[in-house]
Amino acid sequence: MEPLTVQLDDAILRHEALGSPLLLSTLSRPSEARTARKATDPNDWSSPGLGTPVDESAPRFTKAPSGTKIQELAIGRGPSAQNGDSISLDFVLRRSNGYFIYSTVEGVSFQPRDIPVGPLDFRLGDPDIIQGLQDTVAGMQAGGKRRSLVPPAAGYKAGPDLKPVLPTFATQRQLLNHAAEPLIFEVQLLRIRQGS
Predict the structure, then answer these.
(1) Contacts for 155-162 with beta carbons within 8 Å, 24 or more apart?
(2) Are residues 73 and 16 in the same domain?
(3) Is the pTM higher than 0.85?
């Protein structure tokens, strides 16, 4: 269907054209925006304006028994991490609204350069590590990347002294103030040393 083109010379004709049935019928035609809405996720009830097209190739989330939601971003190589393995990983920690808290990698977000960075080393299954991070790492291979949404009960709300302990007072305080909120971990597994 060709677009409607109307050329009017004076204000009276424009005023009459605005009330004409021809103009109203062109306004009532389905627009591209309305037809695009049909391709959005029907389960997105957040807001009609926020519905996004469903990307079938996007990684899906899986849910661990602790309630941690895990998204596989990249699959690594080699053996999978199991309980009792010593692992080394880098992570970025954010609040559920995306607000940056801490990273073990230098140069991420607005983290000051004087904050100590470096990989986190721990034994998988250690009860001193928050459950959500352990669920995120379990089954990963070296070089793999995952993102997880950790509920408060599987995070620092379970115990403020749980690891990883963040290096500065400001980051520790932020975790205490927001312990009742979910956290987002973005993890890259660097090394696995099986058993001990």
Answers:
(1) 155/130, 155/131, 155/179, 155/182, 155/183, 156/130, 156/183, 158/130, 158/131, 161/128, 162/128, 162/129, 162/130
(2) no
(3) no
